[in-house]
Amino acid sequence: MFTENNFHFVGIGGIGMSGLARLLRDSGKKVSGSDAEDSPIVAKLRAEKFEIAIGQKAANIPKNCEVVVHTLAANAENPELVAAEERGLEILDYPAALGRFVAEKKVIAIAGTHGKTTTTGLVVAGALAAGENVGCLVGTNLPMLDGKNARLGESEWFVVEACEYRRAFLNFAPQILVVTNAEPEHLDYYSDWADYESAFVELVGKLPKNGVLVANSHEPNLEKIISGAPHFFDAGDVLENFELKIPGEMNRRNARLALVVGELLNLDPAKFREGIANFAGGERRFELRGEFAGAQIFDDYAHHPTEIRATLEAARERFPDKKITIIYQQHQLDRAAKMLAEIGASFLDADRVVIPNIYRVRDESDSRGQVSGKTIADEIRKSGVETIFTGDFPKTVEWMRENLGENEVVIVAGAGDVFRISAKLLAN
To answer: With contact defined as beta carbons under 8 Å apart, do 247 and 288 qualify?
Structure first.
């Protein structure tokens, strides 16, 4: 917990940063922020009366500021970080600040390559339904949290989505750790699978003697991670099939993990199950955005081959008789270059795929210029799926206006700014 009272957030428009800003303000702190550009998250924070500057400069930091919290995307040359350093202010990156905020709580950390956000939401939904007033920070805005992604809560328990990028989750000392699954990811930071796996092993090592790891032993790649746990509860032994509002086998596996957490907290099983059953998902998690020309338009965050397959499998399960089109924006050049073949083979449950571009992040100066949106489209065509490369957002919206129709489901997918396509299409 923090004793300081005045905070400034550099990059407040990030989903995690916005949640921590809410938590600090709800606990009585004064919070200001800045971001490089406007966004839906910034607009939502403004509606909640946060003071946010667009464009980052030294003058944005209030005179009475004590702590500057910054996104991992901010570099040392950021003018606000330079000014904070010159003023002798305490500077913390987001994971370190969140770790300090929850340090006095009993932390339930939800980690894993895929499914963290949904599993975190399921645990929170079950706990609240069962009367446990948990605090939380989730990686998306949720209807059950009034369209926000964090709540302070009054319980000694705090549920946090624990991201592995740059070993960020090592800032937590969880009492209960959930690992949904593990496969190579973030290879722009981790050198290989062994390096990636080692981060999870290290996190398990932070569990106290009475701490618990929850995972599904039937998931691949978890043997070494599980072996270091002081206590292990196997969600793979949960045979119950849930009636969920969110479709797909991956979400049913997530629900089984959540159910084990409910049992560990000794919460009313029937009420916890009811909370899970009523969980409707969050923003950009198979989120219905509207309808165009008779086609239903969904947004989804899928950006890894496993997630693409799971999203399309869920869509096919929910809409077995409809044509499925996915508008897919590959996230990050590094991931595209290293996983090209896997990406290309991930769209077999789609009737057609539309590729606008690649969202470049962290690696803008990367030399892998030979990988492009067209490269992705060509690779997908090898699997026999109809694939269209449009090249940019305006041409993609134009293509959708000319080609979508009745009895069709459209999924606008990716972790970048591809959501702007559905927003533009449905604006009128």
So the answer is: no
Task: Please identify every stretch of the chain with a pLDDT value under 50, giving residue numbers as ranges.
Answer: 363-364, 367
pLDDT at 239: 67
Residue 13 makes CB contacts below 8 A (sequence gap 6+) with 33, 35, 36, 37, 39, 41, 42, 45, 52
pLDDT at residue 421, as a whole number:
92
Longest dimension (CA), the chain: 62
Helix 116-129 and helix 249-264, axial crossing angle in degrees, nearest 10: 50
pTM: 0.86
pLDDT in tens, 210-240: 999 999 999 999 999 999 999 999 998 876 7
Q: What pLDDT shows up at residue 296?
A: 96
- C-alpha distances in Å from residue 110, one per residue of 71, 119, 122, 218, 261: 20, 7, 11, 18, 10
